[in-house]
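Internal QA ticket QA-208
Title: Verify multi-chain structure generation after dependency bump
Assignee: T.L.

Test input:
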Amino acid sequence: MASAWAILKKELRVLFLSPLAWVFLSAFLLLGGFFFTWGVASTGEASLRGVLANLGVVLIFCLPLVTMRQLAEELRAGTLELLLTSPVPLGALILGKWAASCVLCLVLLALTAPYPLVLVLYGDPDRGVLVTSYLGLMLCCGAFSAAGLFASSLSRDQMVAGVGGVLLLLPFWLAGGAVGVVPVWLEPVLMQLSFVEHLRSFAQGVLDTGDITWFVCFTSLFLFLTWRVLESRRWA
Amino acid sequence: MRGLQRRLATGLNAVIVAALVVGITATLVELASRERVRWDLSEDSSATLKPETLATLDELSARGERVRVTAFSAQARNGEAMFRDRLVRDFLATLQHASPLLETTFVEMDRDRLTAEQLGVDRYGTIVVQGAGDRVDIGEREIFRRRGSPGPGELDFLGEAAISRGIRQVLSDRTRRIYILSGHGERTLFDRGVGELQTIAGLIEEQGWTFVALDLLADRRDGVPPAVPNDASAVMVIGPSHALTQQEEAALRTYLAGGGGLGVFVEPDGVLPELVEELGLLSPDGVVLSEEFVYPFPERPIVHPVRHPVTEVLLEDRLRAEVAHAAGLETVPVDGVRAAPLLQTGRRGWVERSAERPAVFTPGEDIEGPVVVAWAVSLGGPHPLGRGGGRVVVVGDVDVLGDEVINEAPGNRTFVVNLMRWLVRSDDRMSRVGRPGGIRRLTMTPEQLTRVRWLVMGALPLVVLLVGAVVQWRRRRG
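Actual output:
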């Protein structure tokens, strides 16, 4: 745990001392602000439902840009071998890097606090729905970070890792949209794989153990796969 | 060679372990989705099914019938189509979670014309409920109701009641019918536009009941005295302004003697049916007032629920019911008539009998509080009409049913619906009745929106960028 904490601190230092995190935060807030005001102006609804779905899409494209360097850069620079032969357990290394992305996402979501404040100021939003929506988005961030980290573990090239992360996540986001054009037997599978379907209950103000488990399993699976890839590099 | 073997073995091992973990994860996800637990944290409990819907689903389970609900999207040119579709989709998802016997499908009308043609649906926003060899089509007007003017008004989703009723209709050929007496200047529930009693009309439908107009004199056949139809679960008399005829009174007496349920709502200047007065309930002239009133409406005295099956939920959940410009009701003892107060003012309430304003209590002239404004009456053996155990509710106010008061007072929906449940003998269904789910709107001027736009699209990203620049600058200097 201490090793994971040390990795997390080091990653956060690297993240926030590089311009990448700040540009990422600003770009995300600009896009988020655009979607928020566009949603408010076009629907007049005291809800974040529309903007959260759009933020999810933005995160799919943006978050892999943050996670792409986490392992690919170590591989390219040759520091991964040092890390793998150091006394730091592999699990701690992965958890530390993943947690760093999650902390960045937490900062990001905290910076969107003016959105619900505006809704409270000019309307009467459902506060329970706001809380569960943010929780759903946080679970999404955890899942995206894990998948991005996995993509980063597969390549030395940061760009390949970044694009790989997006390509990995996109089908999970679009899976629900394919229902109706695929054979009927495939529909429940696609619904089960779809991020959007699992976010629906959060957007309704519902905490559903089935959906929470799905996000936890998705995240754990990609962290495990990252561990396997790094483990195989250790013995390759 | 040995190195290759070692790499192959290691690779194979990795693939097998990864496959196993994927399999275990998939199993875990599947198990979790089957045994899911849901907590609805929304303020309106909009993702929680109402007790009536759950009762319908229980009936579905008991009968083992499969029911299919197919919802078609709203017309896209309608500015609210997105909201309407979303509310329907959300409800279908909630319904689907609630029962494995339900199959719900949402059909994009413009993309899937085939399904629409197969079901013979040609209207956007229609919901089709099929099961037990029967089918019920629910129109968009039954699923959504607009409160206020067109445009940015409030949109209420009534789909839960409508679909629940549809399911009950395909399962059963008999629904409870509430007859609304007409012909004496009564208020009506039948105006489905922006009417004064449309909320209560929706609540009656939400219970799976249907309401039917009853004009006892106009509906009778030649030579046959007027009678309340046999399938009546209750008869409501809402604010008559002139007296019922003797024939109508006789019809209601016969109905009560047979164990019927009669609900009477009167205004201070209204007319109480003779039948009610025979049961010992009298309405003295004057308006009920109180020193404790719902600010800023002096004619809305604070009334307190008195323990009775009808008011039990109000007391438990500390819900306030409101009356406006109400008549006081008094009782005189009558054999076989058991009258229980439902709502009454505190000791600082009185019946104001003069027209002087501002009104003050005048001893000797006004009637001292507490004043009862609603009674529940059960008929028993010794009374001539008591053999069937009929039930009567008398409320000294019609506004208690009106849209304005029912939507403002948190307890009025619960009070009125439970009152009707008591009349139709659905005592086991007494529960809190919430507001319908809907869209919450913002009240924002264009100038305010511009300010918000500058804040979230300009100031916020810029501040973050500036902080980042400062961090970089300090790092390079340090």
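Spot checks passed. Chain A touches chain B through 63 residues (CB under 8 Å).
Status: verified.
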